[in-house]
Amino acid sequence: MRVLDVSHLRVEFGTEDGRIFAVKDVSFTLGRGEILALVGESGCGKSTVAMSIPRLLGDSNVTIGGSVRLNGADLSSLNEKEMQAVRGKDISVVFQEPMTSLNPAYTIGNQIAEVIRQHQKLSRQAAKARAIELLELVGIPDAARRLGAFPHELSGGMRQRVMIAIAVACDPQVLIADEPTTALDVTIQAGILDIFRRLRDTLGTSIILITHDLGVVADIADRVAIMYAGRIVELCSAQDVFSLPSHPYTRGLLGALPARAVMQGGRRRLTDIPGFVPPPTTDPDECQFAPRCPRATAECIIRRPALELVAAEHEVACYHPGPGDTP
Amino acid sequence: MTSVPKTTNLSTFGATGSRKSQAQWRRVMRRFLKRPLAVIGLVLVVAFILVAVFGPLLLPDPNKQDFATLLQPPSLAHLLGTDDLGRDVLSRIASGARVSLLAGVLSTTIAMVIGITLGLITGFYRGWFDVVFMRIIDVMLAFPFLIFAVGLAAILGASLTNVIIALGVSQIPEVVRIARGEAMAIREQEFVSGAVADGARDFTIMARYIAPNAASAFIVQATVAIPGAIIGEATLSFLGLGVQPPMASWGIMLTSAQQFLAQAPYLALFPGIAIALTTLGFNLLGDGLRDALDPKEKR
Amino acid sequence: MTRFILQRVITSVITLFLASIVVFIGARMLPGDPAQVLAGESADPALLEAIREQFGLNQPIWVQYFTYIGQALTGNLGVSTRDNIPVAEILLQRLPITLELAGLAILIGLVIGITAGVVSAVKRGTFVDYVATGFGLVGLSVPSFWLGLLAILLFAITWQVLPASGFVGFAEDPIGNLRGMILPATVLGIGLSAVLMRQTRAALLGQLSADYVRTARSKGVTRGREVSHALRNSLTTVVTVLGLQLGALIGGAIVTEQIFVIPGFGKLIIDAVAARNYPILQGAVLVAVTGYVLVNLLVDVAYAYLNPRMRLSGGSE
Ligand SMILES: Nc1ncnc2c1ncn2[C@@H]1O[C@H](COP(=O)(O)OP(=O)(O)O)[C@@H](O)[C@H]1O
Ligand SMILES: [Mg+2]
Predict the structure, then answer these.
(1) SS in 3 state form for chain B?
(2) B6 CA → ligand 1 middle, Å
């Protein structure tokens, strides 16, 4: 059963220095209880995808195309008020920046209670009890006392747990976690992933997990979408991405191409691929990975390859897909 | 809002060594020229400077009294009318512009030169000098501007020079604060610690690295300080504590206009419009420069 | 927090002490010999000497300073040279008038400034925003004394609905007092509101694009709640701006009192300079500086209180 269905999502920002094509064409689906990892280099549009699903890109200089369906209902047809009923209740987000994502002027108890009381008719007292329960759920010790704490009194890891508590407060169907552990210490990561796994197992929450870390993908993801320059270039199961990586870019990320594996704080990061990420200021009809691709041919810069099935449940956008070093 | 733009900005500073490259200034310029309000501000400021510099050379003597034409409303002979002594208001506005320009630019220059020097030194060295110096600044800040200016006028007497001194001195603390903050922030950046490690002399570091990087903050501060000083001069002269008659100043013109509000309201209108347009010009220019130099908050 | 307040109190006292020295030295530098002023133009040297002896004017300057400050602390600021009335008495009589004017002006400034700032930030890019921004720019560019003249021209001369001058005390005639205060307080308040509007707008816009507002939005709260999240963090800016504008407000009050002939503190100072009534000038400057430093202290305390980071941790950031 599909909980979420994103199709032909397109996001442009109008800035003073011109248009930014942050997301060019992104389609994927998310099943109930499924964990989809969204992987790609910094700037490829992952966060923009994440923010546009619950329509959090509020600025007037944003143009969004395509559709997002939640249980079959098109979210883009909802007005702002109807959308507010969805946010925090059906679709929640955990942001990349735990240090700044909480309001410094309110206690965390208030900030958790706010989302509860927004969507459920609970008394102040009941909301408080639920907040304590949530803090315990995300592994914050001494929860009752922590309710009165201000964000600056908590460590980054603790703040991110509070963010997760806020996100899961109303048992959302879809949880979007945008690099939830990137800004944190490695040791905290396992605990946070555990919370996600438990949510999925107990409540059947569907999760979009944006990450840089292939270890995380192997650990928790069911499926993987590899993004490059605003598009998904490979979409497959978590097993396939390691055993049968087919897009040259995916293979580059996995270190199959001659490249330097980057180790950082004990985590296996994406590897560096020679060459540069194209600037998001244009949207040409060509494979944007071609300049960095060892398999590129004339065809690649004449017309853009579309996502096509190469195996069951395995799509790749490449004219020369395959696991070998040469086609 | 992502944190990306800020860091890229900083790293490009670092990469080019020390200051905004020419290309960066060109981009600032382009962003500035894209803003209609900023351009209007620039036009107003340029017009003000032209009037102040060339107006008195082209127009009749602002002090020539003519008792045949007292308190005449605007006419072809006197475009902005005449005052209670039959003097041409347009001429007096032009020479008042010169006084304003002098007061605004000279006092701001005084404040900038002293304030930047002291601010960079205290921000760079910190230590006891900084502690003592900031106490002195606190004391300066304890005197509201007009109280300070009134006291100074009482001690030194009222004159354009003393107005400029009062305006300049009272602006020093703000400039020091900015320069000190910039020095402390930029000092910590990589290319400066690199230069320190390479054994560059303190003065070289301040003059070559810190000052140019803080330039945009100083430019913006100047565009705030100049209109402030222009209003300050007009205010002091209006109170009789600034420029003395018969010299023309927009403030003095308003003092005498006050007595003839009912008979000759235009006397109060034109100098006020001149002040308002000039300060508006500087304010628009300042806003435009700030946005163009620091676009991150406009995303 | 207590530590921070204590620290600020101590630095304020030191600042006041140093500032009082500056005022004292400044007063010594005023043109004219104080003994000569007291004795009159044609006093003989013996009398001058006697007066110097009597008022301690021949003592070392620091002794004179401590004598003056000691007396000032007990409320003795000397006597006016014109009519021998104690300076403290005159100041106490004038101060409430200026405080009323400034209080009304702050009230007007806050209401107009914050409302306009919030509305224009929330409705950014709309017609309302342009009107409010335009108001802010013009208000910033127009000096208060010209605004005062225009107000007199329109309301007192042309339409004749409000008086241009003729101050009456609040105790004698509350209505008449307020009628007389409307124009000057509004003129003074508009300058303040322009600055407040611009700063509130900028601060709120900055806060509205902060990450935590996005978090609030992701919880499904209304736009109004989003704004109140951001507004809560913009309040410190409002307090800071108010503190920074205090100096300008004092200056504005002096000018406004001059234009509308209000016998307040500001007019007293200007008249004292013109009449070379130095004891009044010295006392008034001392009181003004003291008040200014104290109010700034209050502003800092309010700022610390509004900022939970400081309210709890006790340090100064
Ligand atoms: N509000 C915005 N305005 C303009 N450009 C933006 C904005 N948000 C993101 N971008 C640009 O869109 C591209 C994709 O950004 P993002 O989605 O944050 O990438 P990722 O999360 O994969 O690192 C980047 O080039 C970024 O600079
Ligand atoms: Mg991101």
Answers:
(1) CCCHHHHHHHHHHHHCCCCCCHHHHHHHHHHHHCCHHHHHHHHHHHHHHHHHHHHHHHCCCCCCCCCCCCCCCCCCCCCCCECCCCCEHHHHHHHHHHHHHHHHHHHHHHHHHHHHHHHHHHHHHCHHHHHHHHHHHHHHHCCCHHHHHHHHHHHHCCCHHHHHHHHHHHHHHHHHHHHHHHHHHHHCCHHHHHHHHCCCCHHHHHHHHHHHHHHHHHHHHHHHHHHHHHHHHHHHHHCCCCCCCCCCCHHHHHHHHHHCCCCCCHHHHHHHHHHHHHHHHHHHHHHHHHHHHCHHHHC
(2) 13
